[in-house]
Specification:
12 strands; 29% helix; single chain; TIM Barrel; three-stranded antiparallel β-sheet; 2 domains; nine-stranded mixed β-sheet; 364 residues; globular; binds iron/sulfur cluster; alpha/beta
Length: 364
Amino acid sequence: MTHLFAHVSPSDWADWRWQLRHRLRTADALEQIVPLTDDERRACAITADRFRLGVTPYYASLIDPDDPACPIRRQAIPTSAEALIHPDERADPLSEERDMPVPGLTRRYPDRVLLYTTHTCAVYCRHCTRRRKVSDPGSAPPRQHLDAAIDWIAEHPEIRDVILSGGDPLSLPDRTLDRLLGRLAAIPHVQIVRIGTRNPTSLPQRITPELCEIFRKYPPLYLMTHFNHERECTPQAAQAATRLAEAGCVMANQAVLLRGVNDSPEAQIALSHALLAMRIRPYRLYQCDLSEGTSHFRTSLRRGIEILDAMRGRTSGLSMPELIVDLPDGHGKVPIHPGHVVERAADHWVLRSYQGERVVVPEV
Ligand code: SF4
């Protein structure tokens, strides 16, 4: 805890409900913790009715108040660049609303579906793909939509894998999560459930022993975390990850490549190493989607490839996330790899080593 929150009792600080109740939701509240730039203050006003401000005291305590380029700050505090809409950007860049067989359930692939459980999050990430509806309590899926979506899954035996998403599913109360997971566990053809959550990053206090007892009942449960920077991998996050691992959850991280936050090989290697130390596998590194008002975060695809290429050999394969582009208009996800195949002949291949050497490998 920084000195800025020194007046908060340790028991309040460790209480996720206290953290949510005391979220910083306005420029004035943020200003008590972090001196805002003129641009940030203006941006808080401009974005207030489009994509709300919300920062837990815990996440705010990770901000370096003296560094306007702090990677935590950039993810949590808007800048006026959010008001710029690039011609290629869309409110729903992945056409998730189009591909809904029933409200609140996106089906993009034959064997898996994504279920929107809530549109609330502990921290509203300024790069959020679903900013069209996330943070808007009026758009939250009602209980009958969730029940109808689970009924739909039960009626479709080809669905093997269900991803609980949102918003952040861990914004829901324990009993609601227990009920949702219990209903999915009762469907014989659902083999795995994944929960996409940023709470281990933005509100690790949410990972309580009681929540983990619920998770323990529903194996195999995959927790898809969203850490973007080494500085998010705090002792509190590590404690949350330990609890999740001990409850039998399998954890994998889905980071987003963000300009000015983590767009260097050094930042990615540091993130991977910190994740692995917390038993979280670096799984994917996403190109920032074409959602409205996010162009200031987007790097070129070339830069993403350069970063992965520079990581190879400097760290282990376990540390290497896959670079993914989620194609616009719902065409699905594709991996992008730095090319290591230089030449392909009938009887041999020429491959490029991580040090740039060309090595001939015979074809068998
Ligand atoms: S936690 Fe996920 S859904 Fe919520 S604001 Fe961040 S990116 Fe968007």
